[in-house]
From TrEMBL:
Organism: Pseudonocardia oroxyli
An example molecular function term from Gene Ontology annotations: acyltransferase activity, transferring groups other than amino-acyl groups
Protein name as annotated: Acetyl-CoA C-acetyltransferase
Pfam annotation, one family: Thiolase_C
Domain Thiolase C-terminal, first and last residues per copy: 282-405
Thiolase N-terminal domain: residues covered: 5-274
Homology family: Belongs to the thiolase-like superfamily. Thiolase family.
Gene3D superfamilies associated with the record: 3.40.47.10
Active site (record annotation): C90, H363, C393
């Protein structure tokens, strides 16, 4: 059975939504630049041999609609290359890599583009979600329960299924973070210190040239270029972050300093069978060892990385002790901290998100899977390590994970 390997990885800088450096970029134009950059890393490959262009997008509507993956293929001049658009919210471009791996292992293709994009700045032109009068009325009571909790606050969370009622499948992500913090006993101080850690580590990584090695500059419509992430800030301190007010509840723990912002960005991977890579004389960056995807209550979706990671590791025949570097997407410190602890990882140690994470760098939903892969492989090379685990929570109550083995 052929193995799936990553032979190229490219990502854009990450811009802040609406007021940031990439606000003028359409999602299709941004993705085209990243796919082209990834293909440029593999000059031996004839792009017309790509079996499918699989694009992840968290909320594919508006400018991200019309099967964006196919639009990107046509814009690239690859009319004979099919394209599809996939959403699994924050893990969309892990799902695309998983699909490429499955096709390769099944013998149904040798070369795939696994890409991801989100441009929140462009949501005013439309997105797939948040249209009025579209929620299933069976969730009305659950949504009312969430709204009441958001207004009054609470010290606890209990699973609505225990009372025989539906959970809130449409719950805002910030409310899930508050729920999980209560359930797992995460303190506001821990969350703030983790947010500061993310910013401080990103600052150190930038100074060391780490992120410059993985970022592909973006050419804007006006001809100027952007080559750095908007989010990281120098000199962030706990004293400053601890003074920020909660965002989602009057008694809340989640603030702008301990969760990710809204963002724009795109990333692309070239996934290939090991046999095709060998035929082309390529040394792959990494092998896709295994993946996992699991579900849990939508109201504590942030805990998704735990079971998904356990599943992926079990399929790889590994334990967390076999993993050199771990990247848990930093949607909220409230969910990274308990997820790490219950996986047996010190959230403040030297294995997790060692170059900072989404609290600092940003989280464009559809881009994040491929972006974290790019950062994880960069980290494994930089630290001369072998095994990496990437994992994230997913809106609606899911978790996803992928294990990589560095080869180059």
């Amino acid at each position: 059975m052929p193995e799936a390997v990553i032979v190229a990885a490219a990502r854009s800088p990450i811009g802040r939504a609406r007021k940031g450096s990439l606000a003028s970029m359409r999602p299709d134009d941004l993705t085209v630049q990243m796919v082209r950059a990834a293909l440029d890393q593999v000059p031996a490959l004839d792009p017309t041999e790509i079996d499918d262009l699989i694009l992840g997008c968290g909320m594919p509507g508006g400018e991200s609609g019309d099967n964006l993956g196919r639009i990107v293929a046509v814009l690239l001049g690859l009319d004979t290359v099919p394209g599809t658009t996939i959403t699994r919210y924050c893990s969309s471009s892990v799902q695309t890599t998983r699909m490429a791996m499955h096709a390769i292992r099944a013998g149904e293709g040798d070369v795939f583009v696994s890409a991801g994009v989100e441009t929140v700045s462009r949501f005013d032109k439309g997105s797939s979600d948040s249209w009025p009068d579209t929620h299933n009325p069976l969730f009305t009571d659950a949504e009312a329960r969430t709204a009441a909790t958001a207004e009054s606050g609470t010290d606890t969370w209990t699973d609505p299924r225990a009372d025989g009622v539906l959970p809130d499948a449409y719950i805002a992500m910030g409310q899930t973070a508050e729920n999980l913090a209560r359930l797992k006993g995460v303190t506001r101080e821990d969350m703030d210190r983790f947010g500061v850690r993310s910013q401080n580590l990103a600052e150190q990584a930038i100074d060391a040239g780490f992120y410059a090695r993985e970022i592909t500059p973006v050419t804007l419509p006006d001809g100027t270029t952007v080559s750095t992430d908007d989010g990281p800030r120098a000199g962030v301190t706990y004293e400053a972050v601890s003074q920020l007010k909660p965002v989602f509840r009057p008694d809340g723990f989640v603030t702008a300093g301990n969760c990710c912002p809204l963002n724009d960005g795109a990333a692309a991977l070239i996934v290939m069978s090991d046999t095709r890579a060998r035929d082309l004389g390529l040394t792959p960056l990494a092998r896709v060892v295994s993946t996992g995807v699991t579900g849990l209550s939508p109201e504590i979706m942030g805990y998704g990385p735990v079971e998904a990671s356990r599943q992926a590791l079990a399929r790889a025949g590994m334990t967390i002790d076999d993993v050199d570097l771990v990247e848990i997407n930093e949607a909220f410190a409230a969910q990274v901290i308990p997820s790490a602890r219950d996986l047996g990882i010190d959230p403040f140690g030297d294995k997790l998100n060692v170059h900072g994470g989404a609290i600092a760098v940003g989280h464009p939903f559809g881009m994040t899977g491929a972006r974290i892969t790019t950062t994880l492989l960069n980290g494994l090379r930089t630290k001369d390590k072998s095994i990496g685990l990437e994992t994230m929570c997913v809106g609606g109550g899911q978790g996803m994970a992928v294990v990589y083995e560095r080869l180059s």
